[in-house]
Amino acid sequence: MDLIRIYQCFCDPTRLRILNLLLQGPLCVCHLQDILKEPQVKISKHLLYLRERDMVEVERCGNWMIYALPVKRGKELETNLKCLQDCTQSDPVFVKDLKALARIVKREPVGVFNNGPYPATVKARSPLRIASQRASS
Amino acid sequence: MDLIRIYQCFCDPTRLRILNLLLQGPLCVCHLQDILKEPQVKISKHLLYLRERDMVEVERCGNWMIYALPVKRGKELETNLKCLQDCTQSDPVFVKDLKALARIVKREPVGVFNNGPYPATVKARSPLRIASQRASS
DNA sequence: TGACTGTATTCCTATATAGGAATATAGAAT
DNA sequence: ATTCTATATTCCTATATAGGAATACAGTCA
Fold it and tell me: Could you give the count of Cα atoms lying within 13 Å of A61 in the half-sphere of its Cβ?
C-alpha cells in the first residue's frame, strides 16, 4: 500500500511544514532552517526520512543541497499534496511559514524560486549571504 | 496542528482499511474482523487508537460495539477523508475490502448499513448469526 | 594549503508504536 | 446462576521514531 508511505511522511509537524514549503518550489536546507527556526540536525534528519520514502528529491549545488518535491508524482501523491495544500491554508503555522518564505523569495535576486534549480550564476554564493549583501547595499 | 492527528491515524495499513470501510457507514467490530481477517486484539487496539484521536465514535448496542466516523467533522478531516476515498479506489486491498463489505450488507436483513445505528429489533442477535441463519434457511 | 560553510552522519537516550498471548468485562441467553 | 459472545485490557517484547551533542564531510574561499 503506497498510501502508507505518504501518510508516514505527513504525520510529523516538522515534515508537514517542510512539505508545505516545498509545494512552493525547491529550497535549500539553510532556507528551511531560516524559516522553521529548528536545529539543523532536526531538519536534516527529517529530510533524510522524506528522501528514504521518495517524498523529496535532492540535488547538490555547490555547498547547498536543494530539496524539491518529486517531479513525477503518482496519482495518490498528487491528490494528497493537493489536499495538504488545501488544509494548510487554514492553519496559522503554515501560513506564517509561507509568509517567511515569501519574504526570502522577494529579497533573492535570482534562484530556485523562479527558475527551478539554482542557476549557475548563483552557485558561487550562499543565497542567504547574497540576501544580506543586498540588504546592506 | 490538527492535521497531525489525522495523518497519525492514516499511517497504518490496518487503520486505513478500517477507515475506508467506515466511510461506507457504521460497523461493529465483528464485521471488521470478518472483512479484514485480522486478529481481534489487533483490530480492537487500532480502534482504541482511532478513538483516542477522535477519529471514530463508538456506541454500545447490546453485545456489539458500533464504530463510526464522527458525525461532526472539521474541514480538515472532511477534506482528508474525501481524499482517502479518492485514493483507495485504485488500490486492490481497499477495493477487495469494500466488496467483502458489500457482500455482508447484502445478506444483512436490517442493520446499521441502511438506517444508521442498529435498530432495536436487531439488538437481541448478532449480525453475523442472523446472516448465517438466513443463509441456511 | 588551511579555514570556512552548509549539510550529513554517528552515537546516544527517551518515547511511541505494533502486535501477540492471556485474561477481564459487559451484556445476553439459557 | 451459569454460560456464551463480543469486545476490551493487561502484560510483554520488538521495533520505530524523535531529538540532541558531537563529529564528519564535501565543496568553496582566501
Answer: 27
Residue of B nearest to A93 (CA): B1
Choice among B59-63, B80-84, B96-100 with the minimum mean pLDDT: B59-63
Q: Do B3 and A91 touch (CB under 8 A)?
A: yes
DSSP chain B: -HHHHHHHHHTSHHHHHHHHHHTT--EEHHHHHHHH---HHHHHHHHHHHHHTTS-EEEEETTEEEEE--SS--HHHHHHHHHHHHHHTT-HHHHHHHHHHHHHHHH-SSSHHHHSSPPGGGTTS-HHHHHHHHHT-
With CA atoms as reference, the chain B residue closest to A74 would be B87
Q: Which three cell numbers stand for residue B24?
A: 461506507
The answer to whether A13 faces chain B, any CB pair under 8 Å, is yes
Average pLDDT over residues B63-89: 95
Taking the model in full, what pTM does it have? 0.84
B108 to chain A nearest CA, in Å? Answer: 30
Q: B1 touching A, CB under 8 A?
A: yes
Any CB–CB contact under 8 A between A93 and chain B?
yes
Please report the pLDDT score of residue A109 as a whole number: 52
Secondary structure (3-state) at A28: strand
pLDDT tens column, A82-114: 999 999 999 999 999 999 998 888 776 545 443
